[in-house]
Write the structure tokens for this entry.
Amino acid sequence: MQRMKTLSAAVLVLSLALALPIKTEALSLACTHYYEYTGHVEADGGHSEYTCKQCGYVLEVPDEDGHIWSGGIEKEDPWCTHDGYMKFTCGICGEAKTEILPEFDHLRIYIEIIKEPTCTEDGLYAGTCAFCGGRKEYSVPAEGHKLTEETVAPTYVTEGYTLVTCSKCGYNEKKDIIPALEKPAQNITVSRQTVSFKASKLKKAKRAFTIGAKTDGDGKLSYSVRYKNAKSKKVLGFRSGKVTIKKGTGKGTYAMTVRVSAVETDDYNAAEKTFKVTVKVK
Ligand SMILES: [Zn+2]
Ligand SMILES: [Zn+2]
Ligand SMILES: [Zn+2]
Ligand SMILES: [Zn+2]
């Protein structure tokens, strides 16, 4: 009777496991042993030997307080719903001792996926025990994000950060924010501020020179001009960094103040600087 039950359970487990694309755990088809007393050995304190008719495994049961456990075995296999036992009888006095064979775990076969686990939420499977037929729902732990990190450097315009992205669910977050970089200032220079001309040459034609304004940044330059006085305004002209002196200008000193501005760029802040430009006519 016991044998029938065990074999049919094993067959059920095998056929289920082969037929369905399902998850099983603890698929164990170990022999449950059908013992037969096969003799007593005197050596080393003495023991009785029982041999499994099915697989040949030999169980040794040591003699104990004068008892020799040679009187046969009464056995019930453990099951997923109850303990089993082995009861030995002394061949001399007939006393019995019983050893409990603990109940084993249900053989759960997941035949129903109620909810697959996600990165952050547990899943739920339903399993049926192949031995006892009991159905139970099992929580399947959340799998956790699969995160990759990408570092983006700050620029003068945008902040830097590390972007953490889950390749499974698309979850993402920015961390380690670094503020946008401070742009360096531009330094503006001019190469000519004081220039002399001969009045004799100005009698024939107007003259011109450039103040040679430059920035060490890359901002576009613009100018605004204030003449020192009415006399200077009358003879001097200024356009795009170039100073002109009118034809026929007489001897004297003429001056203007030029404010040079550089606009802000991707890499530099705006800047502004003022230069005094003097023209001497001799
Ligand atoms: Zn066996
Ligand atoms: Zn005894
Ligand atoms: Zn069970
Ligand atoms: Zn995720």
Remarks:
- Residues 31, 33, 52, 54-55, 57 surround zinc ion (ligand 1) (CB under 6 Å).
